[in-house]
């Protein structure tokens, strides 16, 4: 659903979680020193984040937030740090906390930068993605639409970040059962990404994945499988075979196999996908719950009801623990 910095892993449905670029403004020496200290903590947090060490990233960003608040309670630095902390919260499955941080960041940014600034669009995009993680798809449409409007006006309709938000909107509409609208949005994003980033970029893989999911829902399984395999090829080249983005595409390919009644192949992919996500996120993350839910369906098709029930129970426990906030 990005969500993430371009140098880190792409999110499940889209591929951006903006970490706002750092800027050192003209200021007295003491203030410059304060900002420099904040920047160092942000860089350390970014490094830990990109390694997948979310607890270490959280610690660095929490320290950065203290420094940012010393610069000013309503400073841009506070808003940036809140965005970064929200991204860590998302990766740790704490969506309620992520949403709260992003709401606070948005208030600061709108006050300091105006309602039509690109950083406001970044935060609106992130809010929409967290709402989708919480399965509030209808509520996600408004912030995503506003983010798209700002990005189109400031960056142009063919910019990659515009395509990213178009992808997000497609996911929201798809989740509400609006398949034709979702397909239109994904196909639009696909053209833009091809033109702006090329055919082997991870954003391309994410868009192919999204389009494949719509085609699968429309029972065009052969074309859906073709697109997912292409997404997998791009992702494995970009990230390696043990990355959670690869796990996402494996899971989706398994869902296509399940619809095609290729249950043994679907089970093998579900098991591989589950192992990758458990290693990367830990045993109690929503990404793990999603794989377990799909795996349970496959197990029932294979006549292994007891194993399916165990997987479903575990998935429900994870969902409860991560949505209670």
Provide structural commentary.
This protein has 14 helices and no strands. By secondary structure, the chain is an all-alpha fold. The protein folds into 3 domains: 134 residues, Tetratricopeptide repeat domain (Serine Threonine Protein Phosphatase 5, Tetratricopeptide repeat, Alpha Horseshoe); 97 residues, Serine Threonine Protein Phosphatase 5, Tetratricopeptide repeat, CATH 1.25.40; 86 residues, Tetratricopeptide repeat domain (Serine Threonine Protein Phosphatase 5, Tetratricopeptide repeat), CATH 1.25.40.10. The radius of gyration is 20 Å and the shape is globular.
Question: Short description, anyone?
Answer:
The chain has 325 residues and is mostly helical. Helices cover 77% and strands 0% of the residues.
Q: What is the CATH topology assignment of the largest domain?
A: Serine Threonine Protein Phosphatase 5, Tetratricopeptide repeat
Number of helices: 14
Query: Outline, from the CA principal axes?
Result: globular
Structural class: mainly alpha
Using the CA coordinates, give the radius of gyration: 20 Å
* Low-pLDDT residue spans: 1-27
* Secondary structure: helix percent: over 70%
Q: Quote the beta fraction.
A: under 5%
């Amino acid at each position: 659903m990005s969500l993430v910095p371009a140098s880190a892993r792409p999110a499940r449905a889209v591929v951006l979680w903006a970490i706002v670029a750092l800027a050192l403004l003209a200021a007295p020496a003491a203030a410059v020193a304060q900002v420099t200290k904040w920047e160092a903590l942000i860089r350390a947090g970014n490094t830990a984040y990109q390694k997948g060490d979310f607890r270490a990233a959280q610690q660095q960003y929490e320290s950065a937030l203290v420094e940012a608040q010393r610069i000013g309670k309503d400073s841009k630095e506070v808003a940036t740090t809140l965005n970064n902390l929200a991204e860590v919260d998302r990766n740790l499955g704490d969506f309620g906390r992520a949403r709260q941080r992003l709401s606070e960041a948005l208030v600061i940014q709108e006050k300091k930068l105006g309602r039509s600034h690109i950083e406001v669009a970044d935060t609106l995009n992130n809010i929409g993605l967290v709402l989708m993680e919480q399965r509030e798809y209808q509520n996600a449409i408004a912030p995503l639409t506003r983010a798209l409007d700002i990005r189109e006006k400031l960056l142009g309709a063919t910019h990659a970040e515009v395509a990213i938000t178009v992808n997000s909107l497609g996911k929201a509409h798809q989740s509400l059962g609006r398949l034709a609208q979702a397909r239109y949005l994904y196909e639009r994003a696909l053209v833009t990404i091809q033109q702006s980033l090329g055919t082997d970029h991870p954003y391309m893989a994410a868009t192919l994945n999204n389009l494949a999911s719509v085609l699968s829902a429309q029972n065009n399984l052969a074309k859906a499988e073709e697109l997912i395999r292409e997404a997998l090829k791009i992702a494995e080249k970009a990230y390696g075979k043990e990355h959670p983005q690869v796990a996402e595409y494996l899971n989706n390919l398994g869902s296509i196999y399940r619809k095609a009644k290729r249950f043994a192949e679907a089970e093998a992919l579900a098991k591989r996908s589950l192992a990758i996500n458990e290693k990367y996120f830990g045993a109690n993350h929503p990404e793990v719950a999603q794989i377990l839910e799909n795996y349970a369906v496959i197990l029932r098709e294979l006549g292994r009801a007891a194993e399916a029930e165990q997987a479903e129970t575990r998935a429900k426990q994870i969902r409860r623990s991560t949505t209670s906030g």
